[in-house]
Design goal:
Number of helices: 15
Shape: globular
Strand content: under 5%
Order of helices and strands: HHHHHHHHHHHHHHH
Number of strands: 0
CATH architecture of the largest domain: Up-down Bundle
Largest sheet: none
Number of domains: 2
Oligomer: single chain
CATH class of the largest domain: Mainly Alpha
Radius of gyration: 20 Å
């Protein structure tokens, strides 16, 4: 997860790709956007392979795709189409295969602690950007070309992911369960509880991505110093990683439904607090960490709730469809935030919109989950 989560360090590579190979900002962002989209879509196919062939082979395929993608990019000569195919398509697919297995496998071994185990798994993904940003920054400062860094990432991270995949297995009892109770896709899409999960995760990730994708310019627009706005990004990442673990444990104690409503409500409130607190450096840093804390909740609570509502053995099949909401939010959240700023020349309306959508997500989840009795997790 730490290796796969390096995808969120993409911004560190944008300046050298522009200066060394003449890419436009739009081209670099399209590579990142396609990576996230492929990541979300491929998880659907990875979930079916994990169910039929097991997590080890599925994750090994992810390692090969991830490595191949970065190697292709490293030999691209800076040509955009090869960077797009390597990073956006191949590595994006590799992330989807690996993420699904690293999420679904641990929860099968520790079913009594679904929230905590899921939180620990996705915390690694959340912290991956911090590690790769640190490594890439040092290499770039020493004058290493960006394509050479891609080659180094592809080889070292690919090997680590491959070796990690070799340790994946599921309990024998779980193997037996996967052959029972086949899931009808037609029936699945008619269920209110699936749409409750989808809309809830969309709302939380839309709000989180809108703010996190524009965090530095938001701080600058409210008058904090550039240094403070940059530091706030790191504190948001810390809150994100910590939130994944803590919210996971809270879901084991409070239950998934209460935790999701609480997380979405608190994220909505913390977004609104930016309107009055973002003008003070210390408060802006603190609120950035709180928003990161709420944003991280989405990646543990909804996966945990899927395993509770549908059963642990169906997590790999159902969760990818819920996770598509993150791909959708990733495309439109930061874009809408930027567009609203272009129109209004401030971020107040974007922040208010994120808070409203997050609150609406909490309400929709509450009402759609009514009369949906959840079976006990097996």
């Amino acid at each position: 997860m730490v290796c796969l989560g390096g995808v969120y360090a993409w911004s560190i590579f944008v300046p050298p790709l522009r200066s060394e190979h003449g890419l436009t900002t739009a081209q670099t962002q399209f590579i990142f956007g396609l990576t996230i989209a492929v990541f979300a879509i491929v998880m659907i196919f990875a979930g079916r392979m994990e169910k039929n062939r097991g997590p080890r082979l599925t994750a090994i395929i992810g390692a090969i795709l991830f490595c191949s993608g970065y190697l292709l990019a490293s030999f691209s000569g800076g040509r955009w189409v090869f960077l797009l195919g390597g990073i956006g398509v191949l590595s994006g697919a590799g992330i989807g295969f690996g993420y699904l297995c690293a999420l679904a496998t641990p929860i099968k071994w520790f079913p009594r602690y679904k929230g905590l185990i899921t939180g620990l798994s996705v915390a690694g993904f959340g912290g991956g950007a911090i590690l790769l940003s640190f490594l890439a920054k040092n290499f770039l400062e020493k004058g290493m070309p960006v394509l050479d860094i891609f080659r180094l990432v592809g080889i070292t991270y690919g090997i680590i992911i491959f070796l990690s995949a070799l340790g994946f297995s599921v309990p024998q009892k779980q193997d037996e369960e996967t052959s029972e109770n086949s899931l009808s896709m037609t029936g699945l899409f008619k269920e209110k509880k699936l749409w409750a999960l989808f809309l809830g995760m969309f709302a939380g990730t839309f709000a989180g991505l809108l703010i996190t994708g524009n965090l530095k310019p938001i701080g600058l627009a409210f008058g904090v110093s550039e240094g403070t706005a940059t530091i706030a990004i790191s504190f948001l990442a810390i809150g994100n990683a910590a939130g994944r673990i803590i919210w996971g444990r809270l879901s084991d104690i409070l239950g998934g439904k209460r935790s999701i409503i609480l997380a979405l409500s608190s994220l909505s409130l913390s977004a609104l607090l930016l309107l009055v607190g973002a003008r003070h450096d210390a408060v802006f840093i603190f609120l950035s960490m709180v928003i990161g804390f709420g944003f991280g909740a989405n990646f543990v609570l909804f996966a945990t709730e899927v395993s509770h509502v549908y059963g642990i053995h169906k997590l790999g099949i159902v969760y990818p469809y819920v996770f598509l909401s993150f791909g959708l939010a990733g495309i439109i959240g930061p874009l809408i935030g930027g567009k609203l700023f272009d129109i209004t020349k401030n971020y107040q309306f974007a922040i208010i919109l994120s808070a409203i959508i997050c609150a609406a997500g909490a309400l929709s989840y509450f009402f759609l989950m009514q009369n949906n009795k959840k079976p006990e997790a097996k």
